[in-house]
Here is the input.
Amino acid sequence: MADLLCVIEQRGGGIRKGAHELLAAARQLADASGGRVDALVCGTGPVTGVDSLGSAGADRVLTATHDGFAHYSPDAIVATVQSVSGQYAAVLVAATATGKDLAPRIAAAIGAPCGMDVTAVSAPNGAIRVVRPVYAGKAIQTLDLAGTPVIAVRPGAYPAVASGQAGAVESLAVPAFTSRLAVTGIAAPAKAALDVAEARVVIAGGRGLGEPQHFAMLEDLAAAFGGEAAVGASRAVVDAGWIEHGAQVGQTGKTVAPELYIAIGVSGAIQHLAGMRTARTIVAINRDKDAPIFKVADFGIVGDLFEVVPALTSAIRAAKAP
Amino acid sequence: MKIAICLRRVPDTTAKIAIGPSGVAIDEAGVKFVPNPYDEYALEAAIALREAAGTGETVVVAFGADPVQETLRTALAMGVDRAVHLQGAPSPDGLANARVLADHLRDGGYDLILFGKLAVDDYGQQTGAMVAELLGLPCATAITTLAVEAGVAKVTREVEGGVESAHCALPAVFTCDKGLNTPRLPGLKGIMSAKKKPLDVVPTVAGASQVTVVALALPPERAAGRIVGEGAAAVPALIAALTNDAKVL
Here is the structure.
């Protein structure tokens, strides 16, 4: 197998979290077959973090500079990748909101298959093989991809590694492109909350909370974790309008894999379990000892959540106190 | 305003998944199939835009085997004007399917082509953006707002840590996320009239696939957990378990 191209996500002049994980995925694939890893960074000028890409696994860093890269510019990135894609065995991106938008466009432009949300990639017989969750994680699919596949690697699937090499930096010309979509910017949310898909700890609430204002109790518990926790929710309470849909965990919401998932008043419908079953540790607090959530929980407390949660919040705060 | 909506038929999200004898697909026995939930946001957006415009047409298109006609009828019952069934076997290669749809849509004179952001079976998350690329049209994926005025579409989409805004000229392709709208339920009148609306069947064959499904398997079961206790009195035991056993605190 030959060389790999990683398209590094950039926002506001800095590389995004996840670039090093993406390079780690590419590095192990390249090392297994003696290939090279190139990292492509598209920006309007120097991009912060480019000097870290070599030690994260890139043999070579290609910087493409153009005023069109001030905001996410899919048409410009596709044109730039297309100008060099013939040199590579595969193109890798991080499966973030932006990466998932970009990967299929590149694939269609270069006539290649697209492997989305991939959790493992290898090249057992020369062809590229990917493993990915389907049916929101209720099943795991293994695919062989021919051509120069575009692979979106799920964040968190490969931990970043430090290789200690420098990584030569070269500039790459941006070819002519037609900008069909104009991205004008990113507005931060009114409440600067952590995204459930990115948090180390997720505190999820369900119908057992009884009323929407009781989510405040979950916010308190999340706060006790000191900025590491996000509040999530089951589909039932999102559909009831208790909390915004961005918090929904499950088959029609987000798939999360935090280190700790605390399900509070969540019964554990099959579509919810599909979205959180790969969490490292699952805790369930529920009044009903027969609730399905206890079947996937590592640790459970049967009881009234209005008594248990405040006690847990105090205990976490005490455990986290310096 | 002429709008196409591309629709998929998928297992109900409440369905339990079992692997079929082929080892590369699910066992469909006893599984209830529904319109893909994200496609319902696309259908609602299309019907509402067409109603607001007062003129035009909404067309729902699906590539699949014959049972997809039932799904198309559901869309007609919601209020879509007509349906096209691209009758054939979809490929495991999303690009091959996108080419089928793009070939059909290319000369249709559509102002908007809408998709769900993903289908809850294969989670491919690629067909819409691929169709846009193949047709040379602007595209935004996973949109949560859409406003169309004077031939320009303004959209927003959620990205990590914020909401991204974008605009483009029509015609355009968008894929729709939850939050865009609240899909209407088909009423009795809609269900009756859907039976009389046109549903054209076009025999279709997907091109060569660059994707081979090697295996489909159930995820590993989680090891059995334990109930650490009852009520607030169990909190110290939980803290101990999280600290010493799970080591997450």
